[in-house]
Amino acid sequence: MRKILDDQKTLQSQIDQLKEQLADFCRGLFNVLDQEKIRVKVDERDDERVGYKINKWELKGVPLRLEVGEQELKTKTVTLVRRDTGKKAVVGLNNLAGQVKIVLDKIQKNLFVQAVESLKNNTYEINDYGRFKK
Hints:
This protein is mostly helical and 134 residues long. The chain has helices spanning 2-35, 50-60, 70-75, 96-121, 129-133; strands spanning 64-67, 77-82, 88-92.
């Protein structure tokens, strides 16, 4: 029984250490992006599951999500997830701010094209009042 408790304490210690490393990594990412005037929010809450947090930020309209986990920490990369297409891209830290700006610009252009197309597809010219009433 004592062995199990010791193993649990060791495991919890490793988890806490990983969380602290991830938090430090994210703070560094925040500083890099903030210096480039890119608005960033780091969601460090532990009271909600990942899927819930992702959904919350998508509902708020956040165009680009940066995912950081144990794998990204080891490889010093960040996974970018576009809200408009759902596509993921793994990006190194050497030009993170530049890549984020490029992706945000692509998202903006894509959303504009979609909006113009939707406007064209849903705009009708009616010259007859009878048809208008329908």
